[in-house]
Amino acid sequence: MEAQHVDVRNLCVTVRRPDGSDLRIVDEVSFTIARGEVLALIGESGSGKTTIALALMGYARSGAVISGDITVGDATLGGNGKASLAAQRGHRITYVAQSAAAAFNPSRRVIEQVIEPALIHGTATAAEARAHAVALFEALALPDPATIGSRYPHELSGGQLQRLMAAMALITRPDLVIFDEPTTALDVTTQVEVLQAFRKVVREQGATGVYVSHDLAVVAQMADQILVLNRGTVRERNAVRAVLETPADDYTKTLLAAARPVIKAAAPITAVGKPLLSIEGINAGYGPVDRNGRAAHPVLTDVSLQIGRGAAVGVIGESGSGKSTVARVVAGLLAPTAGTVSLDGQPLAASLKGRTREELRRIQIVFQNADVALNPAHSVGEILGRVLRFYHGTSGAALNSRVAELLDLIKLPAAIADRRCDELSGGQKQRVNLARALAAQPDVILCDEVTSALDTVVREAILELLAELRRDLGVAYLFISHDIATVKALCDEIVVLYKGTRVESGLRDTYAAPPFHPYTDLLISSVPELRTDWLSGVGSQGKVPFAHLPESADLCRFLPRCPVAIAGRCDVSLPPLRTMAAGNAVLCHRTEAELAGEFA
Amino acid sequence: MSVAGIIRGARRLPLSGKIGLALVIFWIIVAVIGPFIAPYPPGSFANEEVFAGSSRQFWLGSDFLGRDVLSRLLSGARFTVGLSVVAVAIAASIGTGFALTAAVGPRWVDELLSRAMDTLISIPSKIFALVLVAAFGSSLVLLTLIIAITYVPGNFRIARSLAVGLARLDYVEVARARGEGRLHLALVEVLPNMIKPLFADIGLRFVFIVLLLSGLSFLGLGLQPPDADLGSLVRENTSGLAEGALAIIAPAVAIASLTVGVNLLIDAATQGKAH
Questions:
Q1: Closest residue by Cα to residue A92 from A127, A125, A135, A56
Q2: Cβ contacts of residue A61 below 8 Å, gap of 6+?
Q3: Which residues contact B247 (CB under 8 A, 6 or more apart)?
Q4: Considering only CB atoms, which chain B residues are within 8 Å of A369?
């Protein structure tokens, strides 16, 4: 029997704590990978998955020490010269990083960067490498494979760059490719394309791979074996199907449960009387506004939605859909060029200056990235205290006890008030971020992608917290996310935005079955499912008839991507808003019967 | 911050920081008590021999006129230390103040301040000083102001680019959405996060100011004899360079130890805050 291609025994990675003691971030990890297999390393942040992947290249971040035995092909961790892992880096062992946009040099053409590893390691001449690169581009389903390489990174989309980075990793025909969360930063619809391309080339090339991810559903499509990690130790190792269907370890079960968000216990909405917050016909954008009242870079076109008292309305869409701009307009950070925002039937001023402190207090905004949403110079107590003093004039002992109350509400110990935000974990920071909004005792909280930067397990806990707060405090949410599963778990009403237009809106239950807007269907079908054969089944809807048309403000925005567009209807006029029998409103030329038939 | 807190902070400094702190404290002490412990008046011709070497009577020898170098050093330190500290403090306050105003204020204020600073930076500092001294006559206060104004635009540029970057961050947006005033945004949200790089810049500017001061003295625009700052001590003894006179080495070492000390301390203190 052939020896295993990758053999890792008793791998430990140790760092020194500031007080001088040693901390093992990877503890006695052993595994093997057979040639041509893909092993997934899965776990939440801090589980050591990236550290292990980097150790396979003989690399440790500064200050960390690797010990144990690692063998990849002929190379070993302690090997001399060519036989060391470090010498194989970029040649026999290659790496695909999470953010391709940050990994490419913006001032050089991509082809030069893609073939660079082959030239540095002398595995091919420039002409051979170029030809190989074009073949890889084709295999990765990139558009115009022959010429795409002559573009600069800023001319390409995130999904294209991620695939180009995979081409860069494969150009030297490596023995081992390490994928480090390569699709985490992508939209779901793009993720599907990238995953399909990755899987195709990995199979075709027979490459051995390590796939690092926190997303079980993604891993299920890519890997043969799964290694579940938690705090640097192995919790479970098994074939993908076995891990998904019969998980042996409790931690694996937690991960699996978190990957399928369940609908949170919500207060029954009492949709009586006037809506609490209503947005009517908002147009907004960035840059100078011209004479017709249009911004130089329009983002939102005629967006309307209503939020009842204590309700949760979800806004979903991919990046660039304008969903964050909706929150900024409601908060008053961006003045709309047309339309009004009203609170309790009273129209609010367009910008912050015209709003009273009481109006500001009632609408609070929570940003996605708690790392930059909390001032690193202040302690948690100062951050929360400032809001209490500002809106409620609380001071002295009352202030301290109110801060403790708030921390209790978000399930953090009161002692955390003295800590600075950079000493907290990602989940703790997001809780503090939420507590700052709660300190104002608002009627509506605008949650802008608050769970997107979090691990599945932490995300689950934050969603739970949001649902509880809503039940106990009666606060309403405008919940913005790119993840339809998260939105479905929390919200009773969902609005789908595409390029700044509202293409569909309706109650949560109407998103359970067709008819939907074609874009909604694309979003729903792009969410990876926890089964190994999911990826093979998606994206078989056939051709997009109007892919050649540029996007136009006078036609349906989705036309260039729509698989069910009809010539003579969709490429002539703006689509009408149709109300379906289930109650959802869909902006589409297709009738209810047609939509139901297409996506049944 | 309490005295105990400062001592605790000083203990935690790395070795380079402790060396820097020791040098800075040494120079502050010299600046305060120097003139009182000087063995001779700084202007008296104490030695018949010029550029004399070290002796029991004259520890650091004598200068080009036969004056005691140690006494002149002890009396001159207060001008260099005091004037530079005051000037850098004024320059940084004005520069950073304007920078914060530009970052949180309306666009036209930013535009106005930036162009005004560009104008100021285009005037050569020595000519600027010459004109002002010619108009108002030389005095310590005027000298301090000239030096401070010269270094405002540089500080403004650094501070503005830092502040404009920080003012776009989410935590400032949140404060803005809360309805906070501009003063709060500038002083509470933005300023604390730019202190670190700002101090690194101030350390550099402190060195420049020491140099500018001696340059001005050289032109006769700076301190008027017999007073002399450390820079002018070096300059007035340049003729002793060929013989390697102690009279030129001693003040040069003094300037070096002061500026190196200040920068070591600032580097160590600002790095410590990051962890």
A1: A56
A2: A51, A54
A3: B51, B60, B61, B62, B63, B64, B69, B233, B237, B240
A4: 170
Q: Cα(A558)–Cα(B169) distance, rounded to whole angstroms?
A: 32
Per-residue pLDDT at A541: 53
Residues of chain B found within 8 Å of residue A355, distances taken between Cβ atoms:
179
Rounded-to-integer distance, Cα B162 and Cα B166, Å: 6
A528: closest CA among A50, A193, A262, A228?
Answer: A193
Closest approach of chain B CAs to the CA of A298, in angstroms? Answer: 20
Among chain B residues, CA nearest to A382: B188
What residues of B are in contact with residue A436 (Cβ under 8 Å)? 174
Q: Between the CA of residue A446 and those of A343, A404, B13, B255, what are the distances in Å?
A: 14, 23, 43, 57
What is the bridge-based pairing of β-strands A338-343 and A312-316?
A: unpaired
pLDDT score for A482: 86
Torsion from C-alpha of A565, A568, A569, A573, nearest 10 degrees = 120
pLDDT-flagged residues of chain B (< 50): 273-275
The dihedrals phi and psi of A29, each to the nearest 5 degrees, come to -95, 130
- Residue A372 near chain B (CB below 8 Å): yes
- A357-406 pLDDT, tens digit per residue, is 999 999 999 998 888 899 988 999 999 999 999 999 988 899 999 999 99
Closest CA to A216 of A528, A485, A536: A528
Task: Kindly tell me if the per-residue pLDDT of A439 is higher than 90.
Answer: yes
Q: Please judge whether A373 and B193 are an interchain contact, meaning their C-beta atoms are less than 8 angstroms apart.
A: no
- Enclosing H/E stretch for B267: helix B246-274
The region, left, alpha or beta by phi > 0 then psi within -120 to 50, assigned to residue B112 is alpha
pTM above 0.90, yes or no: no
Q: Which two tokens stand for residue A115?
A: 């073939």
Cα gap A471→A465, rounded to integer Å: 10
Yes or no: say if A186 and A159 are a contact pair by the CB < 8 Å rule: yes
Residue entry with tokens 């002890």: B74
pLDDT tens-digit map of A305-363: 999 888 899 999 888 888 889 999 999 999 999 999 999 889 999 888 899 999 999 99
CB A110 within 8 A of CB A151: yes
Cβ neighbourhood burial of B227 (10 Å; 0-12, 13-18, 19+): middle
- Are B173 and A376 a contacting pair at CB < 8 A? no
Selecting from B174, B179, B193 the residue whose C-beta is nearest the C-beta of A373 gives B174
Which helix (H) or strand (E) segment is A553 a member of? none
Q: Is the pLDDT of residue A453 over 80?
A: no
What token pair was written down for A429? 């920071």
What is the model's pLDDT at position A266?
A: 58
Residue of A nearest to B189 (CA): A375
> A271-304 burial string, b = 16+ CB within 10 Å, else e?
eeeebbbbbeebbbbeeeeeeeebbeebbbbebe
- Give the model confidence (pLDDT) of B208-228 as tens digits: 888 788 778 777 777 777 778
Q: Which two tokens stand for residue A593?
A: 């019967």
| Residue in A331, A374, A378 closest to B177 by CB | A331
A391's CB contacts (< 8 A; 6+ apart) are A357, A361, A439, A440, A441, B178
A376 touches chain B (CB under 8 A): yes
Instruction: Determine whether the interchain pair A376/B193 forms a contact, defined as Cβ–Cβ distance below 8 Å.
Output: yes
- DSSP letter for A379, please: B
E strand or H helix at A101: helix A100-103
Q: How far apart are CA B231 and CA B213, in angstroms?
A: 7
Contact A375, B176 (CB under 8 A): no
pLDDT at B274: 42
Find out whether B109 and B97 touch, Cβ atoms under 8 Å: no
Q: Which residues of A touch B171 (CB under 8 A)?
A: 372-375
Do the Cβ atoms of A390 and B171 come within 8 Å?
A: no
